[in-house]
Design goal:
By secondary structure, this protein is of the alpha+beta class. It is 37% helix and 20% strand. A hairpin with a 4-residue loop joins strand 1 and strand 2 (72-77). The chain binds adenosine-5'-diphosphate and magnesium ion.
Length: 630
């Protein structure tokens, strides 16, 4: 018989399993039972529409047998089974189980974390077994096969005999060592304990023959009877009443179901009757999965119809901005054989999705109100998603999210504030909600424009994430108050008199400004006096238009935009109260060539302050030198 080798990725994982020092090796049973349950789910689902399956709901079960003599543990299911090809593909390669989509260059030590966080599926059996045999027959096939492996030397597949569809997994346990009592896994009490701990909510009965000793009379030999017992309680937790459940029950279910061993921030358990009848149990995780902000992340809730799983990740039940939510929805209104396409159109699903969104929003609002610290932590992890949500939905999500947003602000030096809080503190004469964009709070604090606004006593929101400016541009305003970037040309900070004065000065110097603008015509649309500078000589302003300077920065840093780079309309603004202004006027009258150099230098300075790179650093350096030796 030919011995086949495991695929390279699988081999690495297997080695890790065989040599694992992981202390919770017991999870192998959870993995095997969950596979059995998945397989039964598939056949049960088929049986609902296909009477030739010949099994009723009550016929489906998982059987566990422990043989102390042979030191084997056997888990049998009457599920869908596997064909020869499926055996080959599913057990020869582990990569498709998704568990190994993480870094593979782990040496021992790090495996501990991986096993705990992801659960590693079928191969985890090799943590406790020296040989694993899989006898299986696919539903609808008349051939059965036996897969066998000791993990180290590859595996074999041979034809075998089996009456009915399903799978029998036999694990030959490793020899006991000082530290590990593998033989314990064929003790009834241990199996009972593990099923309760990890697999209590499996929807199908997990059965085992249990010995009972009955002491009839004192002095007499006990009689031993064997009874088949169901080890798990089966009722899904979401079907139970809230009053029966503790936080611990909820959290336990969460960690088992979603393989996240950090306690969730909150859970939402709702039972609904009316236009849509459904139970939902939703969780807000406390940390983002490793791939959350990548395109590999798949959002969705598990969708059940009267307890039968119909979809593992139903994306239509969750809006993108709440894509971090995990949970289950169980509705008797849904037809079992509904297709993915039909689900999207389904009226019930739409109603449920709306309600789900509302209840998540309410839960978060409640958290924000009652436990600010916890909410801020949550927002650190998932807040970015809200901003993307507003931007990517073209504003459809504004109403849902606007009061869930947090921004750092100059009020109490960088503390997080809500927009509601900002508005409640606005001064009587304050027209706008001011914000400033930059890489960090520290950088923004150094922006020339911010000084004057702070002096006037206005609060400024720090926008340090790429998406911020886009998000606010989509929102336009909050509570009727317009957002205004302090880099905008028309950030209006002056009294009428001051405005008049600047206008006059601008007018008087318009020829000089035109001359300066010509010098850097390809870079700015306008050179003018500034109304928003206090001590700095220059700044760049967005000069109207849809693209702000901040957006230019972000969009041009994306590789896909290389071909069609965008350009913000910019103005170079000069501080009329700065000494440099007088100097410029003098040069305009006496030495226009030097004024050209000055203009270029001022422009480059303004770029640097904004955190943009200068176009020609060599020219910049040369100009500075020229001035230094003058
Ligand atoms: P996962 O369950 O995450 O897909 P596993 O490593 O646990 O990964 O299992 C790999 C695959 O092997 C499963 O996806 C399934 O196709 C198949 N499999 C495992 N156990 C059984 C079983 N008892 N019956 C049918 N197929 C099974
Ligand atoms: Mg599995």
């Amino acid at each position: 018989m030919e011995t086949k080798q495991f695929k390279a990725e699988s081999k690495r994982l297997l080695d890790m399993m065989i040599n694992s020092i992981y202390t919770h090796k017991e999870i192998f049973l959870r993995e095997i039972i969950s596979n059995a349950s998945d397989a039964i789910d598939k056949l049960y689902f088929k049986s609902l529409t296909d009477t030739s399956v010949g099994l009723n709901k009550d016929d489906f079960a998982i059987q566990i047998k422990a043989d102390k003599e042979a030191k084997t543990l056997t888990v049998e299911d009457n599920g869908i089974g596997m064909t020869e090809e499926e055996l080959e593909n599913n057990l020869g390669t582990i990569a498709q189980s998704g568990s190994l989509a993480f870094k593979t260059d782990n040496d021992l030590g790090e495996d501990v974390d991986i096993i705990g966080q992801f659960g590693v599926g079928f191969y985890s059996t090799f943590m406790v077994a020296k040989e694993v045999r899989v006898l299986t027959k696919a539903y609808g096939s008349d051939k059965a096969f036996l897969w066998k492996s000791n993990g180290v030397d590859g595996y074999t597949i041979e034809p075998a005999e089996k009456e009915t569809a399903g799978t029998v997994i036999t694990m030959v346990l490793k020899e006991d060592t000082e530290d590990e009592k593998y033989s314990e896994y064929c003790e009834t009490w241990r199996v009972q304990q593990l099923v309760k701990k990890y697999s209590d909510y499996i929807r199908f009965p997990i059965k085992m023959d249990v010995e009972h000793s009955n002491y009839a009379e004192e002095g007499e030999e006990p009689t031993v009877t064997i009874e088949t017992e169901t080890l798990n309680s089966m009722t899904p937790v979401w079907k139970k009443n809230k009053s029966e459940l503790t936080d611990e029950d909820y959290n336990k279910f969460y960690s088992e179901k979603f393989m996240d061993y950090q306690e969730p921030i909150a859970h939402i358990h709702s039972k609904n009757e009316g236009i849509a009848t459904y139970d939902a149990l939703l969780y807000i995780p406390s940390k983002a999965p490793f791939d959350y902000y990548s395109k590999d992340y798949e959002k969705g809730l598990q969708l059940f119809s009267s307890g039968v799983l119909i979809m593992d990740k139903c994306a239509d039940l969750l809006p993108d901005w709440f894509s971090f939510v995990k949970g289950v929805v169980d509705s008797e209104d849904l037809s079992l054989n509904i297709s993915r396409e039909m689900l999207q159109q389904d009226r019930q699903v739409k109603i449920i999705a709306k309600n789900v969104e509302k209840s998540i929003k309410n839960e978060l609002a409640k958290l924000l109100k009652n436990d600010r610290e916890k909410y801020e932590k949550f927002f650190e992890v998932f807040g970015l998603q809200f901003k993307f949500g507003i931007y990517q939905s073209y504003g459809a999500a504004i109403d849902t999210l606007k009061d869930l947003l947090l921004f750092k602000s100059t009020f109490e030096d960088g503390k997080s504030v809500t927009l509601k809080e900002y508005v409640s503190r606005m001064k009587d004469d304050q027209k706008y909600i001011y914000y400033a964009c930059g890489e960090t709070k520290e950088r923004i604090d150094k922006l020339p424009q911010i000084e004057k606004i702070k002096d006037m006593g206005y609060e400024v929101l720090y926008m340090t994430q790429d998406v911020d400016d886009f998000c606010l541009k989509v929102m336009l305003n909050y509570d009727g108050k317009t957002f205004k970037s302090i880099s905008d040309a028309d950030v209006d900070l002056d009294t009428e008199e001051e405005k008049e004065e600047v206008k006059k000065l601008d007018e008087e110097n318009k020829d000089m400004f035109a001359f300066m603008q010509e010098t850097i015509a390809d870079k700015v649309n306008k050179v003018r006096l500034s109304k928003k500078l206090k001590s700095h000589p220059v700044c760049l302003s967005s000069d109207g238009g849809m693209i702000s300077i901040e957006m230019e920065k972000v969009l041009n840093s994306m590789p896909q935009n290389d071909a069609n780079r965008v350009k913000a309309d910019k103005a170079l603004e000069i501080n009329p109260n700065h000494e440099i202004f007088g100097r410029l006027q003098k040069l305009y009258a006496e030495d226009k060539d030097t004024l050209k150099d000055y203009t270029k230098l001022l422009y480059d300075q303004a770029l640097l302050i904004e955190g943009l790179s200068i176009d020609d650093p060599v020219e910049f350096a040369n100009l500075v030198c020229k001035l230094m030796i003058k």
